[in-house]
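> tool_call: predict_assembly(chains=three)
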Amino acid sequence: MSRYSAFSLLRGALTGHRHWQPAWRDPEPKSHYDIIIIGGGGHGLATAYYLAKVHGLKNIAVLEKGWIGGGNTGRNTTIVRSNYRLEPLHNLFEFGLKLWHGLSDELNYNVMFSPRGAMFLGHSDADMVKLAERGDAMRCDGIDADLLTRDQVAKLEPLLDMSRDARFPIQGGLIQRRGGTARHDAVAWGYARGADSLGVDIIQKCEVTGFVRDGDAVVGVETNRGRISAGRVGICVAGHSGHVAGLAGLKLPVESQTLQAMVTEGVKPMINSVIMSQSLHCYISQSDKGGVVFGGDPDNWPSYAQRGHPMVMEGAVAQGLALVPALSRLRMVRTWSGVTDMSFDGAPIIGETPVRNLFLNGGWCYGGFKATPASGWTYAHTLATGKPHELNAPFSLDRFERGATIDETGSGPMPNSR
Amino acid sequence: MMRIPCPHCGPRAQSEFIYERTVDSVVPLDAPSQEAMTKLFTRNNPRGVDDEIWRHTYGCRAWMILTRHRVTNEISGCRAIGPEALL
Amino acid sequence: MINFSFDGKAYTAQEGDTLAAALLRNGIGLVGRSFKYHRPRGIMTAGVEEPNALVTVGEGGRAEPNTRATDVFVYEGLVAKSQNRWPNLSFDVGAVLGLAAPALSAGFYYKTFFGSAKKWMFYEFFIRKAAGLGNAPTQADPDRFSHRAAFCDFLVVGAGPAGMQAALDAAESGKRVILVEQDNILGASLIRDPQELDAAWIEATAARIRAAGGRILTRTTASGYWEHDLVTLTQRLSEPGQVPANGVAQRLWHVRAGQVILATGSIERPMAFAHNDRPGVMLSQALCSYVRRFGLIPGKRVVIATNNDDAYKTAQALKEAGAQIVAILDARPAPAGANSGHRVYNDAVPLSTKGARHCLKSVSALVDGKVMDWDADLLAVSGGFTPVVHLHMQAGGTLDWNEDAQAFIPASSRQNVTTIGGAAEPQPIFKMVPVGKPKKSFIDFQNDVTLADVDLAWAEGYRSVEHLKRYTTLGMATDQGKLSNMAALGRLAEKQGVAIPEAGLTTFRPPYTPVTMGLLAGAGAKDAGAHVRRLALYDLHAAKNPIWQPLGYWFRPRAYPTGGETLAQAALREAKAVRNNVGMTDVSTLAKFEVSGPDAAAFLEIICATTVSKLAVGRGRYTFMLREDGIVFDDGTVWRLDENRYLLTSSTGGADRMATHISYVRQFLCPHLRVSAVNVQEHYAGLAVAGPKAKAVLATLVGEEPPRHMSTVPASIAGVPVIILAASYSGERAFEIYVDASQAEAVWAACETQVMTVGGALYGLEAMEFLRIEKGHLVVGGEVDGRMTPHDLALDKMLNKAGGFIGASGLARPALSEAGRRQLVGLEAIAGAIPEGAMLIPSEGASPQGHVSAAAFRIVEGGSVALGQLVDGFSRHGEILITSSPTRGQKARVRVVAPHFYDSAGERYRD
């Protein structure tokens, strides 16, 4: 892999950029791999990278039915944070956040990770106590969280509506300063380039159509490019988890729904951090190109259409404008949706399945992007050793029927209720 | 924004309805524990047609079962349920 | 004559001018600076596909940044400013970035700026300042935006010849028709190219459509095609920056159509050659528009470059207007263009332009292999036509490839949509290969993406259309790729060695053109779309100036401070009144259900996890409800009012959820039961009277012996029928009085008078918290947090041993009875105040083993107590722990105790 650097850019400038190599190869699938990862999104590519980098494994493939990073990795609102209330969640995400902080250098690919602060707003005394509780849970586990007064919130984000007679007046906030945003496509490409350079075969336009079984074990996959045998297979396909697991006869605690997001035309800097709310359900941040990235509640009905209900987005924009009225005359230039795999406690599933040699990483609901490094790292551990790491052990597939769910919002088994 | 054919009101905008859950997730009251938990915690979640429970919350408030394709949103059926539907 | 200003200078425009036309009319060719390289840019088009002429129009809170000058009609007093330049357009410091262009190739930022995240943020600061084009206004938006729904048999998009004819035919055959046009006049292509259908035809046809009942909306764009033929339209009622006539700036339509007819025409393609972005280079049909529609020629010496016949219409229009056409460069071989009466060069492909002082000076081309130059100040290009298929694709359509036109046209569709006119039948062109230097040949003008960038992306392996787009950012500017997508696909196909249709296609998504955020929000922007739920007795409470507490969409009195009291002081006084005297509070928001019928008790024993059928008539009990997974999700009381009639109450916060749950269970799980369950939450207002004097107060009000604790009787207060439930949340002898909400005022007034007479007080939610915490009563959303089982909450003794309730199966799950679960405990401060929400830790620096769910000072005895959840809490009474809140810098040592601190034996309820 040719290294990226300012010097290499300069060299390129002087030589008409003729020296650049493809960021990853386009190999034909081999007949056997020690580990096959189904799904070339951020999580799958990160998994492959860590399998090669941390576990030194050489015979790995990532099979992607379309083009890498084309699913939810390319469709999220790019937020990175670890400010969850429940311990197994904040510990997992925090492990990932630490990886984020060194990721560009690790991958020699600038993923533009920008710890500009991820802030939850509180709109009542009750909100503020809930935020303090969340912050205290984090701080007691060594994760940064700070309460902000009204004035501090206003100083950080001067365009927030701080009027006391607003429908949801802002009373303060909880900020995780080490959280922020990253360039989602770059994460996929960075991990892909890194994994490829360590010998991982990234095979695009390769759709898994079935599993090859030997008794109760999986020993390979059938694809549109032929049969490939494997020692272990890891599913990592987000909203399509149900479909792919279904090929192995598994029914998952997952329902695929739609989450919409949008971006405005680019304007000069106006939003400094990532703004979220304890009471309202919208997310506001500004990309480095100037567009304000905006998301809200999921659509709450099952869909694979990658398209939601227009009035859900309109409602989310109404909430956003109540918080930041200055958004009013900006124009939404692009809107998109992902297929989110809603799990039945809102937490991910990373671990074994009842089928031997078949593993699952999914159920990330709408919080998968921030977990990309943590998901990849722990899934790599699980695939390499056959057993979960301490960090992902709680997120087992069987936890639902055992009664050991990790329910951050306390809403229970219906995806709509959270 | 789909147009959902409410069995009582006729075709109405999706914004009048709320999706509740799928038919395959319904746990009958007399289901044995193990089966109940399997129903509660797994879904077919097909990339195709499924039966879903929707309610015309902002209309007649009746419950119904909607048969719908989850990729194309084509609706192939919508039938009423509940005590009145038993008549 | 209309007056307007641009960058502070005053100009005049003619009626009907777009800002672009007006600027050209005033000889202004330099209008903006490109995003990355700050190259000087002018006006390239006459429509919504404009990539360069972006200005901020309007002032104050209605200023609209990034407005296409081609898509705003001049009005008196219009104020426009150029963007993305400093200090001004002519001399822009940012242009120095152009010198660094070789290093700033596509994706350059992924290859550098390494170091710590802090270091990246340092670079990022400058990148963010350079990024973005206009500035968002900071003042409040003074205008409103409205939403409207409409229904029609035919929605016709585009009022060109095909669209107007289709709308006419449909309207005159008795169909309901809506015809929409994004321009402010009808006619579209007819305006620049009348053929036989001139202005008179347009006017007459429009009149006939209206006469037949059709609705015609101008300045209206069909923005998105959703499910089942639902189309969203965005309508401008005023131009950017213009004060709207009736306060509404734009309107968003949700139109449900029987059929949609797309007569959206096509967008002309530029050509790729070196410095094809210079001011003075314009699309041919746009120039024809400026000549015919606006009566202006933005240049003296015109060169036309084309690969099709259409540009000759522009030549004709120019000739009629007296312009000098220096040369027509026709990419096609002879005899194309012969007999046109102009100097035509065949096999001619533009190579490059030269300019001076931000305008065009000369054009060079490769003519049959030889380089030739012409002095010119205006170059019109026509590289072909791209049918506008966006809505067709959003509707789930497919495309065919039209080889003659080198364009995608609509094929089949899942929905009821048809495409007619120029969008279905684009004009044939000659396929040409760019010959100019790739690194100066722009294909995405706004984002400064060149052919060289596409080549670089290819070399680096970003080879699918989406990777190409995301890596180079082409198609991601405000023009959404309308001029760039096909050029990029063409280059990609070349690289792949396939025909264009095999190279791939990007997805088409709403909006067709960018939509104002305020318009999407509509009226919801004011209050986040969240209605307010008011108590039936709101006015009465409001007159006392309480501190209000939001709970979901409700506002409830938190306390009634008097004489300068703080919240804490008022709440303590109110709580003391309840403990020592009598207090009165509004409990109207509680969920309430009337459950009646022969199977009412059986039904309630499905919903509730306790017994219900054992209640005698006139008796009630505490109950709680489980989710299907066995977790406690609500609690309340149930009362047997009559043989087969029960009243169920549950929490305010869970009311909507409980109502849905009850309905679901009734309809789906036990439709055969003979029961009706009616949500009467808002039917009944409720008030509670609590305290040692409550019984005496009630006796006076109702004129008879009040019911004993946990009994219910119907009664009458102030002549109004009420239901009295003798229940206590506060821990004192108490009564809840439910009354028809419309008659509540008289009852409240009577109660309040009596309460005050004996020296009692009103109390709010804050006092209620003090009262219930020391009693150890649970609150949904607090102790009942959606993760606790009955056992965790010490409620398991109340479980209905016969089972059969929802949640019984869920409870059988093994992990729910394992050790190590969080359990309900009480906490007593050894000193200081327990912070609510704090973590419970065994020692400094240890990981939390629980948390404080609710904290208060004991009302009579003083001292800080709390309720909380603690791992294995039941077996840890007596342990000393620390409640720690690092975020608030507070902590207190506590002893773990049983979760009740006041009258554990319930003596206060006995008369």
